[in-house]
Design a protein that fits this description.
By secondary structure, this protein is an alpha+beta fold. It is built from 11 helices and 4 strands. Strands 1-2-3-4 form a 4-stranded antiparallel β-sheet, with no helix packed on it. β3 (about 270-280) and β4 (about 290-300) form a beta hairpin. α3 runs antiparallel to α4 (about 105-170). The radius of gyration is 38 Å and the shape is elongated.
């Protein structure tokens, strides 16, 4: 019997209410507040990108003022108007449209599109984490339910031995002290179950936090067939697919566009301006007046003392982002190595404990026969029973750890959520906005429809 088959057969509980591992994971990935917070971050970042559509559209302003004015200009004003305090007011509409800004707008779109991709990838990474947490919580509840059953069986086993010893004591074949010894072991077995049940209650509390409700009755963990053939291929695939590494890539790209935005301030800014103004008693004239204007305007900052430090800062931010990308890749390699080592250890330990359990079963059977024949002491049998219980306990935990390590391998390769049917297609938006922006910054990213929350 394989480790997983033993684990499922030994520790599945029967109930009318059943929840599959897949259903628990999907519930955690879609309904957990952490997942909803990640989705909200994606939506907010998308709206920040869509704000930039206004950079390519005219800006219309309405302005006005009212007050009192004295103008002393006898060369252009009549004697009746010159030097007189008069109430004045005006209202107008102005329009400004950017013709050239050193590609500032384009780089703003590139930066925010890359930032959106990073936000989407973070949401996907959060889904992987939630999926792994759900798998761990599910397996842990299943494991501790099995251990609680083992503890109950251990109590029953010792009570059965107590009955046998009682008969032997009454028959004078064992001393009275052996009856007290059995009572002590029964009490210890009951105490062990109390500890297991407390751990089970804690595991259920964690399950509720991760999945959102109490675990179902009939729990079963399906096997995972996709296991890497060796550590090297495992690490390469993990780094290639890792959402975390891809986020670091996007952050590095974002720093490049951020630098380009700052460089654009060194180019001239050319705008097309127009407007209409209507006023009363403007410039000292006691009459109504209307003006209209249209024309181009240029503003070019030729020197700014901040520029040398600004350039150096941009270079360091870019270098920081590139190094953090390397750190992310190294951490993924370490995670995969630790996961691989745990998988190998748990597999070997499960097989070894299986062999040990078979040997201990034989010892217990032999000791029970020898006790009945007065060839073996009670303490020998009780110690053998305790060894069997301890090995069963360790075997259950080793099988659970082996099962979990297989799922952890999927998570290390950013494939766990997809394994349970939560594929990138289920994410709000696909992380392709940088590519779309580079193809057409004015249109490709601004046609995204954001559905309202339900």
């Amino acid at each position: 019997m394989t480790a997983i088959a033993f684990f499922v057969a030994a520790f599945s509980t029967v109930s009318a209410t059943a929840e599959s591992l897949s259903a628990a994971v999907r519930q955690a990935v879609t309904k957990n507040p952490a997942a909803q917070a990640a989705d909200a971050d994606v939506r907010a970042t998308l709206f920040e990108l869509l704000e930039l559509k206004g950079e390519y559209q005219p800006e219309v302003t309405l302005f006005g003022e009212a007050g009192a004015q004295i103008v002393d200009n006898p060369s252009s004003l009549s004697a009746a108007d010159n030097g007189e305090l008069r109430g004045t007011a005006q209202i107008g509409v102005g329009v400004e449209y950017t013709l050239f800004d050193g590609q500032r707008r384009e780089n703003l779109v590139y930066r925010n599109a890359t930032r959106l991709d990073a936000s989407i990838l973070r949401a996907m990474d959060a889904s992987e984490t939630l999926a792994l947490n759900a798998v761990e919580a599910y397996i842990d509840v299943m494991r501790l339910r099995g251990l609680s059953n083992l503890a109950a069986q251990n109590i029953a086993r010792h009570e059965e031995i107590g009955s046998q010893v009682g008969e032997l004591v009454e028959g004078g074949r064992l001393p009275t002290s052996d009856g007290f010894l059995v009572d002590d072991r029964i009490a210890a077995a009951k105490d062990a179950k109390i500890g297991v049940d407390q751990s089970l209650a804690n595991a259920i509390a964690r399950y509720i936090r991760v999945v959102g409700h109490k675990p179902g009755g009939n729990m079963k963990v399906p096997g995972v067939k996709s296991v890497p053939k060796d550590l090297s291929s495992f690490q390469n695939e993990a780094v290639r697919n890792s959402f975390r590494v891809r986020v670091a890539d996007k952050v590095a790209r974002e720093s490049v566009f951020e630098g380009n935005i700052k460089k654009s301030a060194r180019a001239p800014r050319v705008t097309l301006n127009g407007g209409v103004t209507y006023g009363v008693n403007r410039d000292g004239n006691s009459s109504n007046r209307a003006d209209a204007f249209v024309g181009a305007r240029m503003n070019w900052t030729l020197y700014n003392g901040r520029r040398p430090a600004q350039s150096a800062g941009v270079q360091e931010r870019t270098r920081q982002a590139e190094l953090e990308r390397r750190v992310a890749a190294d951490e993924v390699r370490e995670l995969t190595a630790r996961t691989w080592n745990a998988y190998l250890k748990n597999g070997k330990r499960s097989r070894l404990l299986d062999e040990q359990l078979r040997a201990n079963f034989s010892i217990v059977r032999q000791y029970r026969d020898e006790l009945a024949a007065a060839k073996r002491s009670l303490i020998d049998l009780l110690e053998a029973e305790r060894t069997v219980f301890n090995v069963k306990f360790q075997k259950a935990s080793a099988d659970a750890a082996l099962t979990f390590s297989r799922y952890r391998m999927l998570a290390a390769r950013s494939r766990l959520a997809e394994h349970f049917g939560v594929s990138p297609a289920n994410v709000l938006f696909a992380p392709d906005y940088e590519q779309r922006a580079l193809q057409s910054p004015k249109a490709a990213v601004f046609n995204t429809v954001v559905e309202p929350l339900k």
